[in-house]
Amino acid sequence: MYFKCGQTRDARMIYDELPTIDLVSWTVMIVGYTQARQPNDGLRLFADEIRSDLLPNSVTAASVLSACSVSGNLNLGMSVHGLGIKIGLEECVVKNALIDMYAKCHTISDAYAIFHGVLEKDVITWNSMISGYAQNGSAYDALRLFNQMRLYFLAPDVITLVSTLSACATLGAV
To answer: How far apart, in Å, are the Cα atoms of 167 and each of 51, 101, 108, 171?
Structure first.
């Protein structure tokens, strides 16, 4: 609630008064800071989490990767990627966050490598890559991927359509 109202300081005070801080507490705070456009504060909490010897789960890793996307912190994102591999965080939510992070940090080839390695792609996986291509000026690749998605009979959602229209606009093909 405090994050939605822009009162990050109040949220932090409540967090600091918790008798025990668990993985859920860390994750909620990281997400809150990221959504409040203060991803570096969330990333500092993640560093505290790691120093406390608490390993992230897939939701925490995806949240940290999202903070890296917003802040443009490619180096930390790559470190989280390596940690995820080391501790076995292979869930789709982590891979989707990796695709988004690499695309937003303008390393589209790394985003595609992750995308290509996902065996069971969901609509979020496709959206992350289509959007990544569109945001990085690779409109033809975005449209190619959109057509490929349709061949797999996966129904596009609003995000898919917005990303595809963005690619079309880049090409002047609206």
So the answer is: 42, 19, 15, 7
Q: Where are the domains of the chain?
A: 1-119, 121-174
Contact in structure between 54 and 23 (CB atoms under 8 Å): yes
Its pTM stands at 0.87
> Long-range contacts: 7-11, Cβ < 8 Å, 24+?
8/32, 8/33, 8/36, 8/38, 8/41
**Which tokens hold the place of 124?**
């979020």
Q: Give pLDDT tens digits for 28-87.
A: 989 999 999 999 999 999 998 888 888 899 999 999 999 999 999 999 999 999 999 999
CA contacts within 13 A on the Cβ side of 32: 20
d(CA 64, CA 55): 12
DSSP string, 33-53: HHHTT-HHHHHHHHHHHHHTT
- Quickly tell me which residue has 């989280």 as its tokens: 80
- Residue 21 CB partners (closer than 8 Å, separation 6+): 15
The structure tokens listed for 103 are 């695309």
